[in-house]
Design a protein that fits this description.
165 residues; alpha+beta; HIT family, subunit A; 5-stranded antiparallel beta sheet; 5 strands; binds zinc ion
Length: 165
């Protein structure tokens, strides 16, 4: 894949330290409420679940999916929310494969302060992995990431997510 016209270097560490973080109670709830203070990178939403491009992606196509209801622990998910989260996750994997042809995925929840979670509202990361990419240390340090602009990711995915039923 080519990155030529899509260079993007997010400053994840600054974000984690809270310097750039918008002053809202919950970033995810604010995104859902279309609060202009937060960047809206929503790819899809219905009354139960939603999917957003990560504003500070670890990789091209980094998404997260979450319940519309503000909860912090996966054990709080209702059966309906659980089913919708699973369905949306599977759908997202298919769309990412179609658009980005990754070689694999890391998918999961960060729960609690010590996990590195920077947002309370429960969300599942979907991170496409590519055969040729920077090392893990480069990625977690946030210092050498050169990836796709999240707005370009959003444009590509929004069209595909219209197929979700
Ligand atoms: Zn929330």
């Amino acid at each position: 894949m080519t990155f030529k016209s899509q260079l993007y270097i997010p400053n994840k560490m600054e974000y984690l330290r809270g310097h750039k973080r918008p002053a809202v109670d919950c970033i995810i709830c604010s995104i859902l409420q279309k609060d202009p203070v937060v960047s809206n990178l929503l790819v899809f939403e219905n009354e139960t679940v939603a999917c957003s491009v990560n504003l500070y992606p670890y990789n091209a196509g980094h998404l997260f999916i979450f319940p519309v209801r503000h909860i912090v622990d996966p054990r709080e998910l209702t059966e309906k929310e659980q089913a919708e989260m699973n369905k949306l996750r599977n759908f997202a994997i298919t769309q990412l494969e179609e658009i980005y042809q990754p070689n694999g995925f890391n998918i999961g929840f960060n729960i609690g302060y010590a996990s590195g979670a920077s947002i309370d509202h429960l969300h599942q990361h979907i991170v496409p992995r590519y055969g040729r990419e920077l090392g893990f240390v480069d990625i977690i340090s946030g210092s050498k990431i050169i990836i796709e602009d999240p707005n370009i990711t959003l444009e590509k995915l929004r069209e595909n997510f219209k197929k979700y039923e």
